[in-house]
Write a structure and sequence with these properties.
- Helix 9 packs across helix 10, helix 9 (289-304) packs antiparallel against helix 13 (340-359) and helix 11 (325-331) runs antiparallel to helix 13.
- 46% of the residues lie in helices and 7% in strands.
- Strands 2-3-1-4 form a four-stranded antiparallel beta sheet.
- Residues 128-140 and 270-277 have low confidence and may be disordered.
- The protein contains 13 helices and four strands.
C-alpha cells in the first residue's frame, strides 16, 4: 500500500505579479491566514512600472487553507498563476487535492480583490490597512551615555542630603524622648520602692497585701481548744478485742526441698545444684571431641572428596579453644571458598547440639 503524507500547509506560487508584494497576505486571507511569505525577488521600484513575475513560497496556518488555495488558483485561469503543494518529505507522496472547487464566493472574492490590487498597483490608496513601516534603527549608545544612564539609575532619591539630614534629626529626637521616658520610669520605680520600705518598716500593711512575717520566721500555730466534747461512742458499746490466731505448729516450716532452703549446706549428690556444679564447659567439649571429629571429617570429605587430617585437626582445635566461628570462616576461605560460610554454620549448629546432649 502507498503511504500518503498528512496535508501539507506549504504552497509554491509561480508567476505572481509584483504589485501583490505588499498585499499578497491580504489577498490570500479568504483561503486562510498565512504564517510566512517568502519572495524569490525583491520588491521592484515604483518608477519602473514593469510587471515582474516572481515565485513565492507561502506557509499557511493550516493544511485546509493550503488545499483551498491550490484548488482555487487553477479555477482562476485568467490570472495565469500556478499553485503547487510542497510535501514535508520528498519520499512520501502527497494526496492530490480536488481538481475543482465549488466555493463560488471564494473564487469571486479572490478575483475581485486581484483586479482591485492590479488597478491601483497594490493596496488601494486611502485603505485603512497599510503596511507597517519598519521601526527605525536606534544607534548604539556610546560609553559616555551608558555611564550617565547607569549613574542616573543608581542615584537613589532617599540618599539625598536633605533626606539624610531629616532622618538624622528624627533619630535624635526619638532618642531624646525615649531617654526622658526611661528616666521617668526609673524615678517612679525608685519612689515606689522607698514607699514600700517605709510601710514595711512601720508595720503598716499595703492595700490588699497581707503584712510581711517577722524576721524570725512564722509563729507556731495556736494549740487546739481543750474544751471540745469527746466523740460519741457507737451504739451497743465498743466491740470486744480480737484474739490472735492460734499457732498451728507449721509456722517457719517450708514446704520446699531441703536442698533448696539450706543455703549453707554443700550440694548433695542427688540435687539439681549438684548436677550444675559438676558441669564444666571444658569437660563437656572434651567429652564430645570424638563425635565432633567424626562430624568434621565427614563434612571435609563431602566438600573436598577426601579426609584432610591437618584440616580436621585445625577445625576441632578451633572449636575446643572456644574461638569465634567468624575467624574459622576467614581461615577456610582459601580452601572451601564460598562453602566456608555454610560449613561454619553447620558446624556451629552441631556443636550446640552435642553440648546440649552431653549436658543432660
Amino acid at each position: 500500500p502507498t503511504m500518503h503524507a498528512p496535508p501539507s500547509n506549504v504552497v509554491l506560487l509561480r508567476n505572481v505579479p509584483s504589485f501583490l508584494y505588499d498585499c499578497l497576505r491580504e489577498w490570500l486571507f479568504p483561503c486562510g491566514p498565512a504564517r510566512t511569505i517568502l519572495w524569490s525577488s525583491r520588491k521592484p521600484a515604483e518608477s519602473t512600472g514593469a510587471a515582474i513575475l516572481s515565485t513565492v513560497l507561502v506557509t499557511m496556518s493550516h493544511g485546509d487553507g493550503a488545499w483551498r488555495l491550490v484548488s482555487a488558483i487553477p479555477a482562476l485561469s485568467e490570472l495565469k498563476m500556478e499553485a503547487h503543494l510542497v510535501p514535508a518529505s520528498p519520499d512520501i507522496p502527497l494526496s492530490s487535492p480536488p481538481s475543482k472547487i465549488n466555493d463560488t464566493a471564494l473564487l469571486d472574492t479572490l478575483k475581485s480583490t486581484f483586479e482591485t490590487f492590479k488597478k491601483h498597483g497594490g493596496r488601494p490608496k486611502g485603505s485603512s490597512e497599510k503596511s507597517t513601516p519598519a521601526p527605525p534603527v536606534q544607534p548604539a549608545p556610546s560609553s559616555i551615555d551608558a555611564k550617565a544612564s547607569a549613574a542616573d539609575d543608581d542615584e537613589d532619591p532617599l540618599k539625598a542630603p536633605a533626606v539624610l539630614e531629616a532622618v538624622k534629626a528624627f533619630r535624635k529626637s526619638l532618642e531624646a524622648s525615649q531617654t526622658v521616658q526611661q528616666r521617668r520610669r526609673k524615678e517612679l520605680v525608685k519612689q515606689r520602692l522607698r514607699e514600700a520600705k517605709e510601710r514595711i518598716r512601720k508595720g503598716v500593711p499595703t492595700s490588699g497585701v497581707p503584712p510581711m512575717p517577722p524576721p524570725g520566721g512564722l509563729p507556731p500555730p495556736p494549740p487546739p481548744p481543750s474544751n471540745l466534747p469527746p466523740p460519741p461512742l457507737p451504739q451497743g458499746g465498743l466491740p470486744p478485742p480480737s484474739t490472735p490466731p492460734a499457732d498451728t505448729g507449721r509456722r517457719g516450716v517450708s514446704n520446699l526441698p531441703a536442698w533448696m532452703t539450706n543455703k549453707d549446706a554443700a550440694p548433695s549428690g542427688d540435687g539439681p545444684l549438684a548436677k550444675k556444679a559438676k558441669i564444666n564447659k571444658g569437660d563437656v567439649l572434651a567429652s564430645i571431641q570424638g563425635q565432633l571429629r567424626t562430624y568434621v571429617a565427614s563434612q571435609i570429605k563431602e566438600y573436598l572428596g577426601e579426609e584432610e587430617a591437618t584440616l580436621i585437626d585445625f577445625c576441632v582445635k578451633h572449636v575446643l579453644d572456644e574461638k569465634p566461628m567468624g575467624i574459622l570462616e576467614q581461615e577456610l576461605q582459601g580452601v572451601l571458598e564460598e562453602d566456608a560460610k555454610a560449613f561454619c554454620q553447620a558446624l556451629e549448629r552441631k556443636v550446640v547440639e552435642l553440648v546440649a546432649t552431653a549436658s543432660v
